[in-house]
Amino acid sequence: xxxxxxxxxxxxxxxxxxxxxxxxxxxxxxxxxDLTERIGDAPYGVILSDRDSRVVDIQARAxxxxxxxxxxxxxxxxxxxxxxxGTNSIATAHELRSGVAVRGEEHYLDRFKHLSCxxxxxxxxxxxxxxxxxDITCRxxxxxxxxxxxxxxxxRDIEERALADSPRSRRRVFEAFTLATTGHDRAVLxxxxxxxxxxxxxxDLVAPADHHLLAQLTxxxxxxxxxxxxxSEVSVLARRVGDGADGTVYEFRRIDVPSRxxxxxxxxxxxxxxxxxxxxxxxxxxxxxxxVTEFDGAAAATDPQAWLRALALADPARPLLVEDIDRxxxxxxxxxxxxxDxxAGLVLTGPVASxxxxxxxxxxxxxxxxxxxxxxADRRTELADLATGMLRRLPGGDRVRLTPSALAALAAxxxxxxxxxxxxxxxxxxxxxxxxxxxxxxxxERYRVSPQRRDLGPLERAExxxxxxxxxxxxxxxxxxxxxxxISRTTLYSRLRSLRIG
Length: 502
Description:
It contains 19 helices and 17 strands. It is an alpha/beta fold.
């Protein structure tokens, strides 16, 4: 697609665009020099590229390797993007934002196929922006699996130096944010000028539109109650960092606000509508103070006369809960219409009111208040709380914790089985790990979906699922997966990035 053929030999060079005094070079130069010293005269070369995938440093003690790099275009300012050099550890690590090993024939350009290279991206510890890529390259005959560990260690050291090289005020904000999030599940957000740090709990809770509201809070004044853009009620504790000019760290605690169904007993009839498994019964019982008298529409359909006699004998001092009113025979629904203003309270459940017909529709219309329970797939922002609460109620659930990545994977599901399906998944996950953190790999296999799948359209979702299935069948080997799908590896990488398949 980029006009690049395997036989191409020219690598574009943009030496003038390289910043020779960049923060990346300041952080990386001592680390790469030390790495080169440790490698010694062994035939390995170390290459550093910047955020635009331009080579900014090359180090190798072995002179023949230096000459070989020159012949391959691995020179200062050389542009190693996939569209200019195809698959290799610099370009592909830059594209995928993850570490890669590219060996021999896995390279796209013919002239690289006698090499093995290991690349790993560098991210700024505070901003999480891509800074560049570190690569170790050697001839395939000299390949060693230990090279991947060397590259990763070098990247960690560079990132630590990048943090130390950051303005002192930003380091203080980062340290305060890290301290606030360590060992706690609460939502934490830090604001410092154009810098925003957020853990996953805060990302789900706080919208960018809330930042201006948070900036008005007085630090040190104790928790303040706020209503966020999402409608969530929270208690916010603001703490200034440093002398107050560095930034502010905010800690959030959700405030449980009674749902629309709660507290309605005795104030008029309530209709709770939703699909099977959306939690209608739980919401209805929450709306009524115990003890209650419960009636089932399905039972009325089986024996209407017995159901009517039981209704007539119901204690007038106790609230009524009538479930599945869409299954009530007409005479039962009509009789129920006569007691909708029952002083003790009445709550009815069934499907969404818009699909009701006849006497059942009249019953729902007679209710002063309606509560609509959305399908679980449309309650993505609530899923973390729902899953965590449900997990705690399961045997042994208090000994485990759902990690943000696992919660994100769960939130990506369609949940045709609603809450029953979620409970089944959590129970199955508990059987695979009874203590500690539950990660994506602990979930049943079909639920280990990339978190962005829920945002895709039908065609993209089908493409997503086909690629995931091909990768799984190929054991993660992208070359085999691309061949099975009938596409090139470059196209596969492009779709992986576009569809955000991790």
